[in-house]
TrEMBL record:
Membrane association type: Multi-pass membrane protein
A GO term, aspect molecular function: transmembrane transporter activity
Protein name as it appears in the record: Arginine:agmatine antiporter
The family this protein is said to belong to: Belongs to the amino acid-polyamine-organocation (APC) superfamily. Basic amino acid/polyamine antiporter (APA) (TC 2.A.3.2) family.
Residue ranges crossing the lipid bilayer per the database entry: 28-48, 60-78, 148-167, 174-198, 232-252, 264-285, 305-328, 362-380, 386-406, 426-442, 448-465, 485-504
Record's GO cellular component terms: plasma membrane
Keywords: Amino-acid transport, Cell membrane, Membrane, Transmembrane, Transmembrane helix, Transport
Subcellular location, record wording: Cell membrane
Pfam families cross-referenced by the UniProt entry: AA_permease_2
NCBIfam families: 2A0302 (TIGR00905)
């Protein structure tokens, strides 16, 4: 984009940076660890509230259509990562490497910073969810998941996760395998238990929805279209994390493990999501499920099988969030390290500890999350919804650029593919993934798009500092090309507008 002209001269630096990373004594992760990473990154606490989240927007038929659209659309994005991992195995820095190689340092920085910050918001969302769940056991203590007690408790968990993540990727992967197994047990028990009491008659009766009087409704394209549109906002958030194995691909034992883990993890999670959202509709009507408090999986298990079911699910929520928190802490702290090695982030972010973990990246991640926890206390309305919405809107441009990069590779680098058919499949994947990503950005809405502009603008000083370190003594006006300054200025202007819009939009207020 802005500095694509400068990228050619910097390309070797990227390879050298990756090579330097490879030369360091660091742990490697195999297929099982990467698979667990992908599954755990996607299956957070959201799956335990999925029945109610989907039922409040759509009937069984509407949900099936929404899952079909989401499943196909997200597959193109997942397949983009798989193809890029196979065709560009030397790019071990994940999303950031694809954006930088394809579009230059400026875009590379935006992806590295945007991906890192959006997932800091994701960690804060996990804090809100785990506090809301604990409030079930201690009513009134952690109200809404963002009161003062929640902020203090979430902060303690945050710094505990910081300590564990500092032990390195392999240590985190080992712990995460155990965590993934533990948190999946309640989900599998729920699926098996609901399948045993599933009644086809109940499922079919309200397939296209029920009226206020409980009368079955027929198919209506406009009503179902609205149901699908509303449910997409839920399904899209659930799949953030599908790139988990790609983000830490530099620590993979074999490049093919990244491809296999990403594909297997995506398909596994897709099937689980569909079963968890649809099986309750064979026991209750969609209207009944929509009225349940969250985590709705806990309510369903208690009503169908007794208190033990509720205890099991609530324990699963806590375990799920804690281990997903650890996964994201590890994943997002890698991004500033990769960018710093290429001179796009300040040099201080290159620091690693004796376990190979990015020490400065982890410190800044923890500090940023700590500030966001304080800010979250002042959120008006549903703090969980605000945090996951910001996460989603800032992640989508990162996915979009990866899809566009695959499109570019398929057009310009024909020799990296084994056959013409493989190149054509890659081209189709890149194009369709790009179109679906654009749809996701559009569906985010003006409120969160403006907020994202403000957040991107806040991070620009990091890029300026990195440029000064790479080019000492150069006047400020010469740090960027003319086109680069135009883009940078545009981001700042949009950021100011976004900040004003956010303040006046009533998202935050004095508690």
């Amino acid at each position: 984009m802005a500095d694509s002209g400068q990228h050619a001269s910097n390309a070797p630096a990227m390879v050298e940076g990756s090579g330097a990373a490879a030369a360091e004594p660091r742990s490697t992760v195999g297929f099982v660890g990467l698979f667990a990473l992908v599954v755990s990154a996607m299956v957070g606490g959201g799956i335990f509230s999925l029945p109610q989240n989907m039922a409040q927007h759509a009937s069984a038929g509407g949900q099936i259509v929404a899952w079909a659209i989401t499943g196909v659309g997200m597959w193109f994005i997942v397949n983009t990562f798989r193809v890029l991992t196979n065709t560009k195995p030397h790019m071990q820095d994940g999303l950031y490497a694809y954006a930088r190689t394809g579009f230059g340092d400026f875009v590379g920085f935006l992806v590295a910073y945007g991906y890192w910050l959006c997932n800091c918001f994701s960690l804060v969302a996990y804090g809100v969810l785990i506090m809301s769940t604990l409030d079930i056991f201690m009513p009134g203590t952690f109200t809404n998941g963002n009161n003062i007690a929640s902020t203090v408790a979430s902060s303690l968990i945050l710094w505990l996760m910081f300590i564990v993540a500092s032990l390195g990727t392999k240590t985190g992967a080992i712990i995460n395998v155990a965590g993934t197994i533990c948190k999946m047990i309640p989900v599998f028990v729920f699926v098996v238990a609901l399948a045993a009491v599933f009644k086809t008659g109940v499922f079919v009766r309200g397939f296209w929805g029920l009226s206020a009087q409980g009368t079955p409704l027929g198919f209506d394209v406009h009503r179902i279209g609205a149901q699908v549109s509303d449910s997409m906002l839920v399904t899209l958030w659930l799949f953030i994390g599908m790139e988990g194995a790609v983000v830490v691909s530099g620590s993979a034992r074999h490049p093919r493990d990244v491809s296999r883990a990403t594909t297997a993890g995506y398909l596994t999670v897709l099937v689980l999501y569909i079963l968890v959202s649809l099986l309750p509709l064979g026991v209750y009507s969609s209207n009944q499920v929509a009225q349940m408090p969250n985590p709705s999986m806990s309510v369903i298990m208690e009503q169908c099988f007794g208190q033990w079911g509720s205890i099991m699910v609530n324990a699963g929520v806590i375990i799920s969030v804690v281990f997903a928190w650890l996964v994201w802490m590890i994943m997002i702290s890698q991004m500033p390290l990769y960018a710093a090695r290429d001179g796009i982030y300040p040099r201080s972010f290159c620091a690693t500890n004796r376990f190979g973990a990015p020490s400065i990246g982890l410190v800044w991640t923890a500090i940023t999350c700590q500030l966001l926890f304080v800010l979250c206390h002042f959120v008006n309305g549903d703090a969980w919804e605000v945090m996951i919405s910001i996460t989603s809107v800032m992640a989508m441009p990162c996915y979009l650029l990866c899809c566009v990069y695959l499109w570019k590779v398929a057009v310009r680098e024909r020799t990296v593919f084994r056959s013409a058919a493989a190149r054509h499949r890659a081209l189709a994947t890149g194009i369709l993934g790009t179109l679906f990503s654009l749809f996701l950005v559009y569906s985010a809405g003006l409120r969160y798009l403006m907020m994202a502009c403000a957040l991107y603008a806040i991070g620009l000083p990091l890029l300026v500092v990195a440029r000064r370190q790479r080019r000492p003594g150069v006047p400020l006006r010469q740090l960027f090309s003319h086109r680069g300054w135009i883009v940078l200025s545009l981001i700042v202007v949009l950021g100011v507008c976004g900040l004003v819009y956010t303040v006046h939009g009533g998202v935050f207020g004095v508690a």
